[in-house]
Amino acid sequence: MLSLRQLLEESRSIGELKEITQPVDWCEEMSGLNYLVAHRENAPVLWFQNIKDARYGSTAVFNLFGTGKERIAASLSLPKGRSIRELVEFTKNNFGRKIPPRSIPAEKAPVNEIIQEGSAIDVTGFPAPKFWPLDGGRYLGTWDVLVTRDLEDGHINLGTYRQMIHGPREIFCYWSPGKDARLQSERYWAQNKPFPVAAVYGCDPALLIVGCITVAKTESEYDFTGGLVNEPVETFRSDLTGLDLPASAEIIVEGFMHPGRLAKEGPFGEFTGYYGRPEARTPLIDIQRVRMRKNPILTCALMADYPANELGIVYGIVRGAKVWNDLENLGVPGVKGVYCFPAAAGGFGMTAVSIEQRYPGHAAQTAALAAQVPSGAYYSKLIVVVDDDVDPTDLHQVIWAMSTRFDPEKDIDILRNTWSTWLDPTKNPPEERIYGSKALINACKEHKHLKVFSPRSRLRREVYDRLVARWSEFGFDYPPPRLTHFEEALDGKSQALPIREDEEESGRRM
Ligand SMILES: Cc1cc2nc3c(=O)[nH]c(=O)nc-3n(C[C@H](O)[C@H](O)[C@H](O)COP(=O)(O)O)c2cc1C
Ligand SMILES: [Mn+2]
Protein backbone atom coordinates (compact mmCIF):
# COMPACT_ATOMS: atom_id res chain seq x y z
CA MET A 1 0.00 0.00 0.00
CA LEU A 2 1.36 3.38 -1.02
CA SER A 3 2.51 5.51 1.92
CA LEU A 4 2.30 9.30 1.99
CA ARG A 5 6.05 9.56 1.33
CA GLN A 6 5.75 7.19 -1.62
CA LEU A 7 2.89 9.26 -3.03
CA LEU A 8 5.05 12.38 -2.75
CA GLU A 9 7.84 10.56 -4.64
CA GLU A 10 5.35 9.38 -7.26
CA SER A 11 4.04 12.95 -7.61
CA ARG A 12 7.59 14.19 -8.07
CA SER A 13 8.29 11.61 -10.75
CA ILE A 14 5.28 12.72 -12.81
CA GLY A 15 6.14 16.41 -12.37
CA GLU A 16 3.28 17.10 -9.96
CA LEU A 17 5.16 18.08 -6.81
CA LYS A 18 6.13 21.63 -5.89
CA GLU A 19 8.44 21.93 -2.90
CA ILE A 20 8.22 25.34 -1.26
CA THR A 21 11.45 25.99 0.65
CA GLN A 22 10.90 29.73 1.00
CA PRO A 23 9.65 30.79 4.45
CA VAL A 24 5.86 30.91 4.83
CA ASP A 25 3.50 31.65 7.68
CA TRP A 26 0.99 29.10 8.94
CA CYS A 27 -1.41 32.03 9.19
CA GLU A 28 -3.32 32.19 5.87
CA GLU A 29 -0.19 31.93 3.69
CA MET A 30 -0.02 28.19 2.97
CA SER A 31 -3.78 28.00 2.35
CA GLY A 32 -3.65 31.25 0.36
CA LEU A 33 -0.97 29.94 -1.96
CA ASN A 34 -2.89 26.66 -2.34
CA TYR A 35 -5.99 28.66 -3.29
CA LEU A 36 -4.11 30.64 -5.93
CA VAL A 37 -2.13 27.74 -7.40
CA ALA A 38 -5.16 25.45 -7.54
CA HIS A 39 -7.16 27.91 -9.61
CA ARG A 40 -5.79 25.90 -12.50
CA GLU A 41 -6.90 22.28 -12.83
CA ASN A 42 -4.29 19.58 -12.26
CA ALA A 43 -2.25 21.85 -9.95
CA PRO A 44 0.69 20.12 -8.20
CA VAL A 45 1.00 18.94 -4.62
CA LEU A 46 2.43 21.75 -2.46
CA TRP A 47 4.99 20.65 0.12
CA PHE A 48 5.85 23.49 2.51
CA GLN A 49 9.22 22.87 4.15
CA ASN A 50 10.03 26.12 5.92
CA ILE A 51 7.03 27.11 8.03
CA LYS A 52 7.08 29.71 10.76
CA ASP A 53 7.13 28.26 14.31
CA ALA A 54 7.26 24.64 13.07
CA ARG A 55 9.16 22.36 15.44
CA TYR A 56 10.08 18.65 15.38
CA GLY A 57 11.44 19.14 11.82
CA SER A 58 7.83 19.14 10.66
CA THR A 59 6.57 20.17 7.21
CA ALA A 60 3.11 20.38 5.64
CA VAL A 61 1.50 19.07 2.46
CA PHE A 62 -1.43 20.77 0.70
CA ASN A 63 -3.35 19.89 -2.48
CA LEU A 64 -2.41 16.24 -2.14
CA PHE A 65 -5.24 15.13 -4.46
CA GLY A 66 -7.20 18.19 -5.58
CA THR A 67 -7.78 17.69 -9.30
CA GLY A 68 -4.71 15.44 -9.75
CA LYS A 69 -6.27 12.36 -11.33
CA GLU A 70 -3.00 10.39 -11.57
CA ARG A 71 -2.19 10.94 -7.88
CA ILE A 72 -5.63 9.61 -6.98
CA ALA A 73 -5.17 6.57 -9.22
CA ALA A 74 -1.78 5.83 -7.62
CA SER A 75 -3.30 6.06 -4.12
CA LEU A 76 -6.06 3.63 -5.07
CA SER A 77 -3.59 1.19 -6.74
CA LEU A 78 -5.28 1.83 -10.10
CA PRO A 79 -3.61 1.99 -13.53
CA LYS A 80 -2.30 5.26 -14.93
CA GLY A 81 -3.73 7.22 -17.82
CA ARG A 82 -7.37 6.19 -17.35
CA SER A 83 -10.42 8.40 -17.65
CA ILE A 84 -12.30 9.52 -14.56
CA ARG A 85 -15.19 7.34 -15.68
CA GLU A 86 -12.93 4.29 -15.69
CA LEU A 87 -11.45 5.18 -12.30
CA VAL A 88 -14.95 5.33 -10.81
CA GLU A 89 -15.73 1.89 -12.22
CA PHE A 90 -12.46 0.32 -11.01
CA THR A 91 -13.02 1.77 -7.55
CA LYS A 92 -16.60 0.52 -7.45
CA ASN A 93 -15.44 -2.96 -8.39
CA ASN A 94 -12.85 -2.92 -5.58
CA PHE A 95 -15.40 -1.97 -2.93
CA GLY A 96 -16.84 -4.84 -0.97
CA ARG A 97 -13.65 -6.92 -0.77
CA LYS A 98 -12.46 -7.19 2.87
CA ILE A 99 -8.84 -7.69 3.93
CA PRO A 100 -8.17 -7.45 7.69
CA PRO A 101 -5.17 -5.39 8.87
CA ARG A 102 -1.80 -6.98 9.57
CA SER A 103 -0.71 -6.26 13.12
CA ILE A 104 2.98 -5.54 13.79
CA PRO A 105 4.78 -4.91 17.12
CA ALA A 106 4.48 -1.26 18.23
CA GLU A 107 8.26 -0.75 18.27
CA LYS A 108 8.45 -1.69 14.58
CA ALA A 109 5.97 1.03 13.55
CA PRO A 110 7.68 4.06 11.96
CA VAL A 111 5.19 6.40 13.65
CA ASN A 112 6.63 5.37 17.03
CA GLU A 113 10.08 6.80 16.23
CA ILE A 114 9.33 9.71 18.58
CA ILE A 115 6.87 9.49 21.49
CA GLN A 116 5.82 12.40 23.69
CA GLU A 117 3.75 12.23 26.86
CA GLY A 118 2.54 14.61 29.57
CA SER A 119 4.03 18.09 29.61
CA ALA A 120 6.35 17.25 26.67
CA ILE A 121 3.29 17.40 24.42
CA ASP A 122 2.74 20.64 22.53
CA VAL A 123 0.73 20.35 19.31
CA THR A 124 1.27 24.03 18.52
CA GLY A 125 4.75 22.92 17.38
CA PHE A 126 3.14 21.34 14.30
CA PRO A 127 2.53 23.60 11.29
CA ALA A 128 -1.24 23.66 11.80
CA PRO A 129 -2.62 26.29 9.42
CA LYS A 130 -5.16 29.00 9.93
CA PHE A 131 -6.81 28.71 6.52
CA TRP A 132 -9.21 31.64 6.15
CA PRO A 133 -9.31 35.10 7.70
CA LEU A 134 -12.47 34.48 9.76
CA ASP A 135 -11.47 30.97 10.96
CA GLY A 136 -11.70 30.56 14.72
CA GLY A 137 -8.14 29.24 15.07
CA ARG A 138 -5.44 26.91 13.78
CA TYR A 139 -6.53 23.53 12.42
CA LEU A 140 -4.25 20.60 13.15
CA GLY A 141 -6.80 18.23 11.66
CA THR A 142 -8.25 18.69 8.19
CA TRP A 143 -6.75 15.84 6.13
CA ASP A 144 -6.88 13.51 9.13
CA VAL A 145 -8.41 10.24 10.10
CA LEU A 146 -9.99 9.80 13.51
CA VAL A 147 -9.70 6.17 14.63
CA THR A 148 -12.35 4.95 17.08
CA ARG A 149 -13.74 1.63 18.24
CA ASP A 150 -17.39 0.68 18.56
CA LEU A 151 -18.33 -0.06 22.14
CA GLU A 152 -20.70 -2.90 21.25
CA ASP A 153 -19.07 -4.94 18.48
CA GLY A 154 -15.51 -3.59 18.57
CA HIS A 155 -15.25 -2.65 14.90
CA ILE A 156 -12.93 0.23 13.98
CA ASN A 157 -14.32 3.38 12.38
CA LEU A 158 -12.27 5.86 10.37
CA GLY A 159 -13.64 9.36 9.91
CA THR A 160 -12.18 12.63 8.62
CA TYR A 161 -13.35 15.38 10.98
CA ARG A 162 -11.81 18.82 11.43
CA GLN A 163 -9.73 19.48 14.56
CA MET A 164 -9.00 22.99 15.81
CA ILE A 165 -6.26 23.51 18.40
CA HIS A 166 -7.57 24.57 21.81
CA GLY A 167 -4.27 24.38 23.71
CA PRO A 168 -0.95 22.49 23.69
CA ARG A 169 -2.66 19.27 24.86
CA GLU A 170 -6.22 19.79 23.69
CA ILE A 171 -7.84 19.81 20.24
CA PHE A 172 -11.48 19.88 19.18
CA CYS A 173 -13.22 17.31 17.03
CA TYR A 174 -16.11 18.65 14.97
CA TRP A 175 -18.44 15.94 13.66
CA SER A 176 -21.80 16.61 12.08
CA PRO A 177 -24.97 14.97 13.43
CA GLY A 178 -25.24 11.38 12.18
CA LYS A 179 -21.50 10.82 11.59
CA ASP A 180 -20.22 7.46 12.80
CA ALA A 181 -17.72 8.52 15.49
CA ARG A 182 -20.31 10.90 16.92
CA LEU A 183 -22.84 8.08 17.25
CA GLN A 184 -20.15 5.90 18.85
CA SER A 185 -19.22 8.66 21.33
CA GLU A 186 -22.84 8.87 22.47
CA ARG A 187 -22.74 5.20 23.52
CA TYR A 188 -19.59 5.69 25.63
CA TRP A 189 -20.87 8.90 27.19
CA ALA A 190 -24.28 7.39 27.97
CA GLN A 191 -22.34 5.03 30.28
CA ASN A 192 -20.21 7.95 31.52
CA LYS A 193 -17.10 6.40 29.96
CA PRO A 194 -14.35 8.45 28.27
CA PHE A 195 -14.25 7.86 24.51
CA PRO A 196 -10.78 6.66 23.38
CA VAL A 197 -9.68 8.28 20.10
CA ALA A 198 -6.61 8.72 17.93
CA ALA A 199 -6.28 11.49 15.35
CA VAL A 200 -3.95 10.41 12.57
CA TYR A 201 -2.19 12.75 10.13
CA GLY A 202 -0.17 11.81 7.07
CA CYS A 203 -1.32 8.20 6.94
CA ASP A 204 -1.39 6.04 3.82
CA PRO A 205 -3.44 7.96 1.24
CA ALA A 206 -5.89 5.05 0.88
CA LEU A 207 -6.82 5.51 4.55
CA LEU A 208 -7.41 9.22 4.00
CA ILE A 209 -9.72 8.33 1.15
CA VAL A 210 -11.71 5.80 3.18
CA GLY A 211 -11.87 8.22 6.13
CA CYS A 212 -14.05 10.59 4.16
CA ILE A 213 -16.61 8.19 2.66
CA THR A 214 -19.63 6.65 4.31
CA VAL A 215 -19.08 2.95 4.91
CA ALA A 216 -21.62 0.65 6.61
CA LYS A 217 -21.91 1.50 10.29
CA THR A 218 -20.99 -2.04 11.31
CA GLU A 219 -17.93 -2.50 9.13
CA SER A 220 -14.25 -2.24 10.11
CA GLU A 221 -12.90 0.48 7.87
CA TYR A 222 -9.38 -1.06 7.99
CA ASP A 223 -10.78 -4.23 6.40
CA PHE A 224 -12.58 -2.07 3.87
CA THR A 225 -9.39 -0.13 3.02
CA GLY A 226 -7.38 -3.35 2.69
CA GLY A 227 -10.00 -4.67 0.29
CA LEU A 228 -10.02 -1.46 -1.70
CA VAL A 229 -6.30 -1.61 -2.51
CA ASN A 230 -6.02 -5.40 -2.21
CA GLU A 231 -3.38 -5.28 0.51
CA PRO A 232 -3.69 -5.25 4.32
CA VAL A 233 -3.23 -2.02 6.30
CA GLU A 234 -0.31 -2.35 8.76
CA THR A 235 -1.41 -1.51 12.27
CA PHE A 236 -0.10 -1.80 15.83
CA ARG A 237 -2.09 -2.00 19.07
CA SER A 238 -1.84 1.01 21.38
CA ASP A 239 -1.41 0.20 25.08
CA LEU A 240 -2.94 3.60 25.92
CA THR A 241 -6.31 3.42 24.18
CA GLY A 242 -6.42 -0.18 22.97
CA LEU A 243 -6.95 1.13 19.44
CA ASP A 244 -5.26 -0.40 16.39
CA LEU A 245 -3.36 2.43 14.71
CA PRO A 246 -1.78 2.79 11.26
CA ALA A 247 1.94 2.00 11.55
CA SER A 248 3.25 4.20 8.74
CA ALA A 249 1.41 7.40 9.73
CA GLU A 250 3.41 10.60 10.10
CA ILE A 251 1.77 11.82 13.33
CA ILE A 252 -0.75 10.28 15.77
CA VAL A 253 -2.36 12.29 18.55
CA GLU A 254 -4.02 9.99 21.04
CA GLY A 255 -6.23 10.47 24.03
CA PHE A 256 -9.76 10.57 25.38
CA MET A 257 -12.90 12.59 24.90
CA HIS A 258 -14.49 13.03 28.31
CA PRO A 259 -18.28 13.25 28.69
CA GLY A 260 -19.44 16.86 28.89
CA ARG A 261 -16.04 18.38 28.02
CA LEU A 262 -16.94 20.97 25.35
CA ALA A 263 -15.82 24.46 24.37
CA LYS A 264 -16.49 26.96 21.59
CA GLU A 265 -15.01 25.99 18.21
CA GLY A 266 -15.01 27.56 14.75
CA PRO A 267 -16.06 29.11 12.52
CA PHE A 268 -14.17 27.46 9.64
CA GLY A 269 -14.12 28.14 5.90
CA GLU A 270 -15.81 24.93 4.77
CA PHE A 271 -16.23 22.62 1.75
CA THR A 272 -19.13 24.78 0.60
CA GLY A 273 -16.83 27.77 0.08
CA TYR A 274 -18.55 29.53 3.01
CA TYR A 275 -17.98 29.67 6.72
CA GLY A 276 -20.34 27.17 8.32
CA ARG A 277 -22.33 27.88 11.41
CA PRO A 278 -20.90 30.46 13.80
CA GLU A 279 -18.69 29.38 16.70
CA ALA A 280 -20.44 26.63 18.66
CA ARG A 281 -19.84 24.20 21.52
CA THR A 282 -17.86 21.19 20.32
CA PRO A 283 -16.24 18.21 22.13
CA LEU A 284 -12.54 18.22 22.97
CA ILE A 285 -9.81 15.57 22.84
CA ASP A 286 -7.61 15.38 25.96
CA ILE A 287 -4.25 14.43 24.36
CA GLN A 288 -2.18 12.00 26.39
CA ARG A 289 0.32 10.79 23.83
CA VAL A 290 1.81 12.06 20.58
CA ARG A 291 3.66 9.73 18.23
CA MET A 292 5.55 10.88 15.17
CA ARG A 293 8.11 9.92 12.59
CA LYS A 294 11.29 11.94 12.32
CA ASN A 295 10.58 15.10 10.28
CA PRO A 296 6.84 14.41 10.28
CA ILE A 297 4.62 15.65 7.46
CA LEU A 298 1.24 17.17 8.32
CA THR A 299 -1.45 16.64 5.66
CA CYS A 300 -3.76 19.64 5.24
CA ALA A 301 -6.97 19.98 3.20
CA LEU A 302 -8.06 23.35 1.90
CA MET A 303 -11.83 23.70 1.70
CA ALA A 304 -12.85 26.18 -1.01
CA ASP A 305 -14.75 26.62 -4.24
CA TYR A 306 -13.71 24.46 -7.23
CA PRO A 307 -11.04 23.71 -8.35
CA ALA A 308 -9.14 24.77 -5.23
CA ASN A 309 -11.08 22.42 -2.94
CA GLU A 310 -9.01 19.44 -1.81
CA LEU A 311 -12.26 17.49 -2.00
CA GLY A 312 -11.99 17.58 -5.77
CA ILE A 313 -11.84 14.72 -8.21
CA VAL A 314 -10.93 12.27 -5.44
CA TYR A 315 -14.30 12.69 -3.81
CA GLY A 316 -16.09 12.70 -7.14
CA ILE A 317 -14.58 9.29 -7.82
CA VAL A 318 -14.84 7.59 -4.44
CA ARG A 319 -18.20 8.97 -3.39
CA GLY A 320 -19.54 8.21 -6.85
CA ALA A 321 -18.11 4.69 -6.67
CA LYS A 322 -19.62 4.12 -3.22
CA VAL A 323 -23.08 5.29 -4.32
CA TRP A 324 -22.82 2.91 -7.29
CA ASN A 325 -21.73 0.12 -4.94
CA ASP A 326 -24.68 0.85 -2.61
CA LEU A 327 -27.13 0.83 -5.57
CA GLU A 328 -25.68 -2.44 -6.80
CA ASN A 329 -26.01 -3.99 -3.34
CA LEU A 330 -29.67 -2.97 -3.35
CA GLY A 331 -30.11 -4.79 -6.64
CA VAL A 332 -30.72 -1.79 -8.89
CA PRO A 333 -29.88 -3.06 -12.38
CA GLY A 334 -28.40 -1.29 -15.38
CA VAL A 335 -26.26 1.35 -13.62
CA LYS A 336 -23.51 2.40 -16.04
CA GLY A 337 -21.75 5.03 -13.97
CA VAL A 338 -22.04 7.48 -11.07
CA TYR A 339 -20.18 10.72 -10.38
CA CYS A 340 -20.32 13.44 -7.75
CA PHE A 341 -19.22 16.65 -9.46
CA PRO A 342 -16.36 18.25 -7.53
CA ALA A 343 -17.61 21.75 -8.36
CA ALA A 344 -20.78 20.94 -6.41
CA ALA A 345 -19.40 21.84 -2.95
CA GLY A 346 -16.59 19.30 -3.11
CA GLY A 347 -18.78 16.53 -4.53
CA PHE A 348 -21.32 16.69 -1.72
CA GLY A 349 -23.89 18.75 -3.62
CA MET A 350 -24.72 16.82 -6.78
CA THR A 351 -24.78 13.19 -7.91
CA ALA A 352 -25.21 12.06 -11.51
CA VAL A 353 -26.20 8.46 -12.28
CA SER A 354 -26.26 6.94 -15.73
CA ILE A 355 -28.57 3.98 -16.36
CA GLU A 356 -29.75 1.79 -19.16
CA GLN A 357 -33.52 2.20 -18.66
CA ARG A 358 -34.98 -1.27 -18.40
CA TYR A 359 -38.50 -0.87 -17.04
CA PRO A 360 -41.14 1.72 -16.20
CA GLY A 361 -40.13 3.57 -13.03
CA HIS A 362 -36.49 2.49 -13.22
CA ALA A 363 -35.18 6.07 -13.52
CA ALA A 364 -37.36 7.39 -10.69
CA GLN A 365 -36.34 4.48 -8.49
CA THR A 366 -32.66 5.06 -9.19
CA ALA A 367 -32.95 8.76 -8.38
CA ALA A 368 -34.74 8.18 -5.08
CA LEU A 369 -32.29 5.51 -3.97
CA ALA A 370 -29.16 7.38 -5.09
CA ALA A 371 -30.46 10.30 -3.05
CA GLN A 372 -30.90 8.24 0.10
CA VAL A 373 -28.34 5.41 0.14
CA PRO A 374 -26.00 5.96 3.13
CA SER A 375 -23.03 7.01 0.97
CA GLY A 376 -25.03 9.55 -1.02
CA ALA A 377 -27.50 11.05 1.42
CA TYR A 378 -25.38 13.57 3.33
CA TYR A 379 -25.93 17.15 2.07
CA SER A 380 -26.61 16.23 -1.60
CA LYS A 381 -29.17 18.54 -3.21
CA LEU A 382 -29.32 17.55 -6.86
CA ILE A 383 -29.62 13.96 -8.02
CA VAL A 384 -29.68 13.65 -11.80
CA VAL A 385 -30.38 10.42 -13.63
CA VAL A 386 -29.30 10.21 -17.27
CA ASP A 387 -29.41 7.51 -19.95
CA ASP A 388 -26.49 5.26 -20.75
CA ASP A 389 -25.41 7.29 -23.78
CA VAL A 390 -24.48 10.11 -21.40
CA ASP A 391 -21.16 10.02 -19.54
CA PRO A 392 -22.04 10.91 -15.93
CA THR A 393 -18.50 12.21 -15.30
CA ASP A 394 -18.86 14.78 -18.11
CA LEU A 395 -20.67 17.84 -16.80
CA HIS A 396 -21.30 19.14 -20.32
CA GLN A 397 -23.04 15.93 -21.36
CA VAL A 398 -25.12 15.92 -18.18
CA ILE A 399 -26.20 19.51 -18.77
CA TRP A 400 -27.04 18.61 -22.37
CA ALA A 401 -29.21 15.73 -21.15
CA MET A 402 -30.91 18.00 -18.62
CA SER A 403 -31.61 20.54 -21.34
CA THR A 404 -33.05 18.04 -23.81
CA ARG A 405 -34.59 15.15 -21.83
CA PHE A 406 -35.75 16.78 -18.62
CA ASP A 407 -39.08 18.56 -18.49
CA PRO A 408 -39.20 20.61 -15.27
CA GLU A 409 -42.97 20.41 -14.90
CA LYS A 410 -43.02 16.62 -14.71
CA ASP A 411 -39.49 15.38 -14.18
CA ILE A 412 -38.60 16.84 -10.82
CA ASP A 413 -39.44 15.49 -7.36
CA ILE A 414 -38.50 16.91 -4.00
CA LEU A 415 -37.43 15.00 -0.88
CA ARG A 416 -37.77 16.85 2.39
CA ASN A 417 -36.25 16.63 5.90
CA THR A 418 -33.20 14.78 4.61
CA TRP A 419 -29.73 14.33 6.19
CA SER A 420 -27.84 17.58 6.10
CA THR A 421 -25.48 19.69 8.17
CA TRP A 422 -24.94 22.94 10.04
CA LEU A 423 -22.66 23.88 7.17
CA ASP A 424 -25.39 24.39 4.50
CA PRO A 425 -25.60 28.14 3.91
CA THR A 426 -29.04 27.96 2.24
CA LYS A 427 -30.93 27.01 5.41
CA ASN A 428 -31.77 29.97 7.58
CA PRO A 429 -32.03 30.76 10.39
CA PRO A 430 -28.93 28.59 11.01
CA GLU A 431 -30.67 26.48 13.71
CA GLU A 432 -32.70 24.78 10.93
CA ARG A 433 -29.68 23.67 8.96
CA ILE A 434 -29.37 20.05 9.87
CA TYR A 435 -32.48 19.17 7.84
CA GLY A 436 -32.05 19.44 4.09
CA SER A 437 -34.00 18.84 0.92
CA LYS A 438 -33.17 17.24 -2.41
CA ALA A 439 -34.29 17.61 -6.01
CA LEU A 440 -34.55 14.39 -7.99
CA ILE A 441 -34.10 15.23 -11.64
CA ASN A 442 -35.08 12.66 -14.23
CA ALA A 443 -33.03 13.62 -17.29
CA CYS A 444 -33.60 10.32 -19.07
CA LYS A 445 -35.60 10.01 -22.25
CA GLU A 446 -39.25 9.76 -21.21
CA HIS A 447 -39.83 6.07 -20.68
CA LYS A 448 -43.55 6.29 -21.47
CA HIS A 449 -42.78 7.68 -24.91
CA LEU A 450 -39.47 6.07 -25.77
CA LYS A 451 -40.79 4.99 -29.17
CA VAL A 452 -41.60 8.53 -30.29
CA PHE A 453 -38.79 10.32 -28.46
CA SER A 454 -36.82 12.34 -31.01
CA PRO A 455 -33.87 10.26 -32.23
CA ARG A 456 -30.50 11.61 -31.20
CA SER A 457 -28.26 12.64 -34.08
CA ARG A 458 -25.46 10.09 -34.10
CA LEU A 459 -22.81 8.94 -36.54
CA ARG A 460 -23.19 5.70 -38.41
CA ARG A 461 -20.68 3.14 -37.15
CA GLU A 462 -19.28 2.40 -40.61
CA VAL A 463 -18.68 6.11 -41.25
CA TYR A 464 -17.06 6.48 -37.83
CA ASP A 465 -14.79 3.48 -38.46
CA ARG A 466 -13.81 4.79 -41.86
CA LEU A 467 -12.95 8.28 -40.57
CA VAL A 468 -11.05 6.97 -37.56
CA ALA A 469 -8.99 4.72 -39.82
CA ARG A 470 -7.97 7.80 -41.81
CA TRP A 471 -7.58 10.07 -38.73
CA SER A 472 -3.83 10.47 -39.03
CA GLU A 473 -4.05 10.74 -42.80
CA PHE A 474 -6.12 13.90 -42.14
CA GLY A 475 -3.22 15.19 -40.06
CA PHE A 476 -4.60 15.04 -36.51
CA ASP A 477 -1.87 14.25 -33.96
CA TYR A 478 -4.14 13.27 -31.06
CA PRO A 479 -6.36 10.19 -30.70
CA PRO A 480 -9.91 10.35 -32.10
CA PRO A 481 -12.73 10.46 -29.50
CA ARG A 482 -14.14 7.10 -28.52
CA LEU A 483 -17.85 6.90 -29.35
CA THR A 484 -20.09 4.20 -27.93
CA HIS A 485 -23.49 4.90 -29.51
CA PHE A 486 -24.18 4.93 -33.24
CA GLU A 487 -27.12 5.29 -35.59
CA GLU A 488 -28.61 1.86 -36.13
CA ALA A 489 -31.84 2.69 -37.98
CA LEU A 490 -30.20 2.48 -41.37
CA ASP A 491 -28.03 -0.57 -40.74
CA GLY A 492 -27.53 -2.55 -43.91
CA LYS A 493 -29.07 0.17 -46.05
CA SER A 494 -27.34 2.49 -48.47
CA GLN A 495 -25.88 5.68 -47.06
CA ALA A 496 -27.73 7.88 -49.48
CA LEU A 497 -31.13 6.45 -48.57
CA PRO A 498 -33.69 9.25 -48.76
CA ILE A 499 -36.21 9.64 -45.95
CA ARG A 500 -39.47 7.98 -46.94
CA GLU A 501 -42.52 10.15 -47.13
CA ASP A 502 -44.60 8.18 -44.64
CA GLU A 503 -41.82 8.50 -42.03
CA GLU A 504 -41.74 12.22 -42.58
CA GLU A 505 -45.47 12.47 -42.00
CA SER A 506 -45.37 10.39 -38.85
CA GLY A 507 -42.93 12.88 -37.38
CA ARG A 508 -40.29 10.18 -37.00
CA ARG A 509 -37.55 12.33 -38.52
CA MET A 510 -38.76 15.73 -37.37
C1 LIG B 1 -10.84 17.06 4.23
C2 LIG B 1 -12.16 16.66 4.82
C3 LIG B 1 -12.63 17.28 5.95
C4 LIG B 1 -13.85 16.90 6.51
N1 LIG B 1 -14.25 17.51 7.65
C5 LIG B 1 -15.37 17.09 8.28
C6 LIG B 1 -15.75 17.63 9.53
O1 LIG B 1 -15.08 18.52 10.07
N2 LIG B 1 -16.84 17.16 10.14
C7 LIG B 1 -17.62 16.18 9.59
O2 LIG B 1 -18.58 15.78 10.18
N3 LIG B 1 -17.30 15.65 8.38
C8 LIG B 1 -16.18 16.08 7.72
N4 LIG B 1 -15.82 15.54 6.52
C9 LIG B 1 -16.71 14.53 5.90
C10 LIG B 1 -16.56 13.19 6.59
O3 LIG B 1 -15.22 12.81 6.61
C11 LIG B 1 -17.37 12.10 5.89
O4 LIG B 1 -18.73 12.43 6.01
C12 LIG B 1 -17.10 10.70 6.44
O5 LIG B 1 -18.03 9.82 5.90
C13 LIG B 1 -17.16 10.64 7.94
O6 LIG B 1 -16.83 9.35 8.39
P1 LIG B 1 -17.97 8.41 9.00
O7 LIG B 1 -18.87 8.07 7.85
O8 LIG B 1 -17.22 7.22 9.52
O9 LIG B 1 -18.66 9.19 10.06
C14 LIG B 1 -14.62 15.89 5.92
C15 LIG B 1 -14.13 15.27 4.78
C16 LIG B 1 -12.93 15.64 4.24
C17 LIG B 1 -12.40 14.94 3.04
MN1 LIG C 1 -17.61 5.19 9.08
Can you give me a brief rundown of this structure?
24% of the residues lie in helices and 23% in strands. It is an alpha+beta fold and 510 residues long.
Q: What does this protein look like?
A:
This protein is an alpha+beta fold and 510 residues long. The chain folds into three domains: 89-299, Pnp Oxidase, Chain A, CATH 2.30.110.10; 313-449, 3-Layer(aba) Sandwich (UbiD C-terminal domain-like), CATH 3.40.1670.10; 459-510, no CATH class. Helix content is 24%, strand content 23%. The protein has 13 helices and 22 strands. The protein has helices at 4-13, 29-37, 69-75, 84-94, 180-190, 205-211, 221-229, 313-330, 362-372, 374-377, 395-405, 461-469, 501-506; strands at residues 17-20, 45-48, 59-62, 102-103, 114-117, 139-141, 144-149, 156-159, 163-167, 170-172, 195-201, 234-237, 244-246, 251-257, 262-265, 280-292, 297-299, 335-340, 350-355, 382-387, 412-419, 435-443. Helix 4 crosses helix 8 and helix 6 (205-211) crosses helix 7. The chain is globular. The model is unreliable at 503-510 (pLDDT under 50). Manganese (II) ion binds at residues 157, 159, 180, 215, 221. Manganese (II) ion is lined by residues 157, 159, 180, 215, 221.
